[in-house]
Amino acid sequence: MLKTIVSSILVLSLSLSAETLHMHKMDMTPDDDRQSLGIKGTPQGVHQLSNMREHLAAISEIVGLMNTGKYDEASTIATEKLGLTLEKNSMCGSFKNQSFEQMGVVFHKSGDNLAQTLKTKDHAKSMVALEKVLNGCVLCHSTFKQ
Ligand code: HEC
C-alpha cells in the first residue's frame, strides 16, 4: 500500500515537472520572424523537405568522398545533387518568391563551383568551396520557413 502511494506520488510529480519543463520551453521560444513561403503541409512542402534531406545527404557523401580522396566522385555528386540543373532552377522558381529563387540560384551556382573545385583535387580549396555552399544553406534557413 505504502509502495503504491509512494510510486503514485513519484509518477505525479514527474509528470508535473515534465509539464513545467514543457511550458518553460514554450515560454522561451524566441520569435520566429523568418519569411513564410506558405507551403507548410502542402504536397509541394512535403516534396521540398525531401529535396532538402537529399541536400544534406549529398553534403555528407561529398565530405566522406573527400576524406577518402575520391574527388571525382565527390564532384559528380556536387553537380548532380547541388548544382544548378534545369529541374532545380524551376523548383526554386516554383515558390513564387523572388528573393527565395535568387538565393536558391546563387546556392546552386556555389554547388557547381564546388564541383569544379573538387576536380582540382585540392583539399584546401575544396573546403573553401564547401564552406560557401554551407553558407548558402544557413542564409536561406535563417531567412525562410515553409
Ligand atoms: C533557397 C533556400 C534554401 C537553401 C539554399 C537550402 N534550404 Fe534547406 N530548407 C529550406 C526551407 C525553407 C526549409 C523549411 C524550414 C522550415 O520551414 O522551418 C528547409 C528545410 C531543410 C531541412 C529539414 C528537412 C525536413 O525533413 O524537415 C534540411 C535537413 C535542410 N533544409 C537541409 C539543407 C541543406 C543541407 C542545405 C544546403 C546544402 C539547404 N537545406 C539549403 C530552404 C533552403
Automatic annotation (TrEMBL):
One of its GO terms (biological process) is electron transport chain. GO terms for molecular function: electron transfer activity; heme binding; iron ion binding. Transmembrane segments: none annotated. InterPro entries: Cyt_c/b562. Residues 1-18 form the signal peptide. The keyword Aminoacyl-tRNA synthetase does not apply. Gene3D superfamilies: Cytochrome c/b562. SUPFAM superfamilies: Cytochromes. Keywords: Plasmid, Signal. This is Cytochrome C.
